[in-house]
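Researcher: Next sequence.
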Amino acid sequence: MIEKIILITLILACIFTKNKPMVLASIIVLIFSFINNDNIIKFSRKYFLETGLCFLMIWMLIPLIDKNKESILDVKNYLNLNGFVSIACGIFVAIIASKGLNFLTGNVSVLGGVILGSIIGVAFLGGIPVGPMIASGISFEIIAMIKYFVEK
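Model: Next structure:
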């Protein structure tokens, strides 16, 4: 019962903060909680992460075929500070994320902490629980620091 109250509270909070993906996810999990079927939970745990990652990868690869955008295949676009730092951060975050995923598996305290932190960050602070966005954010911060120290 406490799980349903938490989910309803989360739904209301996310409606208030206008976080549509979290509202949808919370509603789906709330529906799952009323169905109360172990097979749904097993299926969700087994396939939803990979399915979500697949959709994320599709989103990331779409610029390859988007004729209206500047080509991401043009190497000259990466021969600058933004390009170098972003590539390095992308590599770094991909490696860290793979280690983090392995660390999460079977580690309840870490999994619970990451879930709680992600929910708080997404629902109340406008965050997005997505690895490439983390890489972009890290890139932004590093570039801003480099520019700050170079321009001083």
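Model: Residues 74-152 form one domain. The chain has a mean pLDDT of 81.
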